[in-house]
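== Folding task for one protein ==

=== Format: two labelled lines per protein ===

==== Paired sequence and structure tokens ====
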Amino acid sequence: MPIVSVIIPCYNGERTLRETVASAGAQTLTDIEIIIVNDGSTDTSGQIAESLQQHDRRIAVHTITNRKLPGARNYGIEQASGRYIAPLDADDLWHPTYLEKLVKELDRVGENSAFAYSFLRRIDENSNIIETKPSIAINGTALQRSIVHNFVGTGSGIVIRRSAAVAVGGYDERVRGSEDYLMQIKLAAVGEVVCVPEYLIGYRQSATSMSISRFAMARGSLEALDIAVSEVEGINPSVARWAMARTQMHGMIQAAKSYRFGLAFGLAFKGLYNDFVGLIADGFERGRRRYGRPHAVTSSETPRHFNDIDPTADVVELSKTFRRKRLERASRLEAGSLSTSSFHRTPLQLPRAGL
């Protein structure tokens, strides 16, 4: 039985699949299986996967009728036999030490841990670094903090204890675009979080990747939060209110950019109702930092390939923003040292009408 089952869902990923599978196969933790789920691709992804299988006995290829990303991941989990599940999107990359380091930390913490994660760098179509994402290390009980901030940031940056994945029922197929965020919240409700504070994930952004569709991601985030607040036990209502307000305002911005002005107005109203003070404070801080945000690469610099950079270099910490202050308050709440009365209380306005 392998230690880790790597799940690579693939839909029309012929341009990047070889490089992604190579990054999984090059892991220093070699006791793994690599499950490629060809999710009804109409390009040559299936043939590429089968050719890769001929050169690495650890690779298994499954071709299914298109189930979308969460469904393909769930299919892969059903086929997996490893103690840990490591999803990897067909256009992303891992540093060679990724699995070794995250599994080591999960083993150290023991059965109470639900998942481990590390930090990410955004990469382009040539796997050169676009940006080093500001990150924060979260450890221990983290349900409230997982609501306040999507600290993982990508579905390819998490290694899950198999028993925890089964306990939460896998990925929620009702959500498309933020099913990994909802999975993170559900996992944080059943176990502890472990962080390896290194940049071990290359998160690709291209003209065709779903991550580039800001409006779709905003819609998915609202759907994920709505389901989490409605169905996951233990979420503090005030924490949920602030997170929902911030997500609604992000949705408002993306709706306006898509010329959906009526929808944008409705989301703005709900966001301000849920957390007026927090959104105003967060908006001022975002404006002040807008042009000073640190990036790993600018247009004037020589491009740097993801694999050529030390994962401990160019660390960009989440600054002392209003969001970080909310994270600190949520952490104290999880530790039992902060009463719920410390949060502003108003009825929560959920986006029932959707985006």
Notes: The first strand starts at residue 4 and ends at 10. Residues 294-300, 337-354 have pLDDT under 50 and may be disordered. The first helix runs from residue 17 to 25. Strands lie at 4-10, 32-39, 59-64, 84-87, 93-94, 113-123, 129-132, 158-161, 192-204.
